[in-house]
């Protein structure tokens, strides 16, 4: 397979400094809404990068469930590999790739557990099957077959038959609190537009915006 000639030119839009919101949260909200309006598949899918205590980075796609000025929230099993790595090194990176708009957003910051009350509030909105799944899977653990998962699913299903499913103690959310944002717009000839937001003097309301070379 010849990968050297596998390429597309990015010609949809450019990005100028004057177009940017001064607040990166507002800029993200604008781009996220445009991704939703464009009917892109899974616009809330994001690549979460974590680093182990040995310095080994790992990545996986998770779903952004909500965001505000406090940060960006996703949910997982607290015994999963990602959670264990966050517990030992809470510096993480998020990457949104909206290929249909030829855009990327990278967010770097620290991850922290949200409250049990906040996790429960979201858990109650999940489909019942997803609630059961949170109980039956010890995420990232080694299993001998899928049949084990299916049996555990049926056992939990019967256990909570005709009753509300409680929040598992091993499941909940993390909030990524940003210290930087990068907004990337694809351009022709690989001369992409990139703008980098960083906090000024640890003031959450003041951000410096700089253009980066592609």
Would you mind describing this structure in some detail?
- With 214 residues, the chain is of the alpha+beta class.
- It has 5 helices and 9 strands.
- Helix 4 crosses helix 5.
- The two termini are 27 Å apart.
Give the SSE layout:
Elements: H1 24-37, E1 45-51, E2 57-63, E3 66-68, E4 71-77, H2 81-88, E5 91-98, E6 103-113, H3 116-123, H4 128-136, H5 146-159, E7 171-185, E8 193-200, E9 203-212
Antiparallel strand pairs: 1-2, 1-5, 3-4, 4-7, 5-6, 6-7, 7-8, 8-9
Mean pLDDT: 94
Shape: globular
Low-confidence stretches: none
What about the largest sheet? Answer: 9 strands, antiparallel
The percent range for helix content is 10-25%
Name the structural class: alpha+beta
Number of strands: 9
Global Rg: 20 Å
The number of distinct helices, counting runs of at least 4 residues, comes to 5
Helix-strand sequence: HEEEEHEEHHHEEE
Please state roughly what percent of the residues sit in beta strands, choosing from under 5%, 5-15%, 15-25%, 25-35%, 35-45% or over 45%. Answer: 35-45%
N- to C-terminal distance: 27 Å
Summarize the structure.
The chain is of the alpha+beta class.
Key features?
5 helices; 214 residues; alpha+beta; globular
């Amino acid at each position: 397979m010849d990968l050297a000639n596998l390429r597309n030119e990015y010609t949809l839009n450019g990005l100028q400094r004057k177009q940017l919101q001064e607040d990166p949260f507002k800029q993200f909200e604008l781009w996220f809404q445009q991704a939703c309006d464009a009917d892109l598949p899974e616009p809330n899918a994001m690549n979460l990068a974590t680093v182990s205590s040995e310095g080994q980075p790992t990545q996986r796609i998770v779903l952004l469930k909500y965001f505000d000025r406090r940060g960006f929230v996703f949910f997982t099993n607290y015994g999963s590999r990602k959670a264990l790595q966050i517990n030992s090194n809470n510096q993480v990176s998020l990457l949104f790739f909206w290929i249909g708009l030829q855009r990327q957003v990278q967010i770097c910051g620290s991850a922290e557990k949200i409250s049990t009350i906040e996790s429960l509030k979201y858990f109650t909105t999940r489909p019942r099957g997803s609630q059961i799944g949170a109980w039956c899977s010890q995420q990232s653990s080694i299993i001998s077959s899928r049949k084990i998962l299916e049996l555990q699913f049926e056992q939990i299903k019967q256990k909570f038959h005709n009753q509300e499913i409680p929040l598992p103690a091993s499941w909940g959310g993390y909030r990524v609190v940003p210290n930087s944002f990068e907004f990337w717009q694809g351009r022709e000839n690989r001369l992409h537009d990139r703008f980098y937001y960083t906090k000024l003097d640890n003031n959450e309301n003041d951000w410096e915006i700089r253009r980066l070379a592609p």
